[in-house]
Predict the structure.
Amino acid sequence: MAVYLDCAATTPIDPRVREEVLCYLDLEFGNAGSRTHDYGRRARSAVEKARQQVGTVAGASRGEVIFTSGATESNNLAILGLADYGRRAGKNHVITTQIEHHAALEPVEELARRGFTVTRVAPDSSGGVSPDSIGQALRPDTLLVSVMHVNNETGVVQPIEPIAAALADHAAFYHVDAAQGYGKAIDALRNPRIDLISVSGHKIHAPKGIGALIVRRRGTERPPLSPLMHGGGQERGLRPGTLPVELIVGLGKAAELALAEWSERERCCRAFRERLLAGLEPLQAVINGDPDRSLPNIVNLSIPGIDAEAAIEAWQDLAAVSDGAACTSQYYTCSHVLAAMGLSEERKEGALRLSWCHFSEMPDTSAMVGRIHALL
């Protein structure tokens, strides 16, 4: 069986997380909204514990955590949820970047269809955006700045703290899509100038279908979000529906483990990266994105003379890798991220994303090299 090297798409569930999830599926199955008996009270207590665990990773309080189905929903709530306030306040300008995940780009496009003006800041060839470019794009009517924490295709960490500094004297709300960075790059997300943080469970060894939006207060005021759905009043009225207690507990446990183990996980991932790239060195691959600014668990590379699809097929029984973001690969279109970086057509067409975690096994790199050489 091929070694799984697509952890940027989804991670395997941690056995300790799985144990918690099964407990709240099989034994503690109460509805957290039931207040008349112990089953419901225990479920509510478990949800609040998870809320604390998720918030602690980003230096947020329990009351600032809203559970969602994942980072895509969180992005939609953060971006589209500010639209009503923006119209009322005469703030009709939004800043984002050209390298955001579609889960953020498309809600921004929806704002544009509703009459908002959008500035899309380009990255440089290293895959990062400039804080100065964000600062220069600010206007008196800027409602929102939305910048991802870590790019899902290249692994390049964006300068979210310097951007926060650039926003210090501006009232614009600051949203960070932290799907790839939450639980992996800890300190930056604790910056109090970040108002909204999107979290994905299945990127940190929790189940799919659970995430969170951290809605950080400014003093006593919360960002003025409007719900996208109605009915039930759960999650402070921002996200109605019966809470999936087992998934929430799983996310909480995964967040707790990520915070406790992040240093050792980072060390493992960095050692894995060095060994993997050393094994693939005979292919003379070119790395897309500055490796010195990237998380140690993602590499995007192009092999000269080799199309990405050909490499994926050649490695099919050796390594499970991606030619880009798994959630958009069904469109078979050129990566908007690599295009924005200004890479050549050959590099874009040959780009492969390999991503791993502290659980990952090393693939047979000699065999991988041999398969590629056979194609040349």
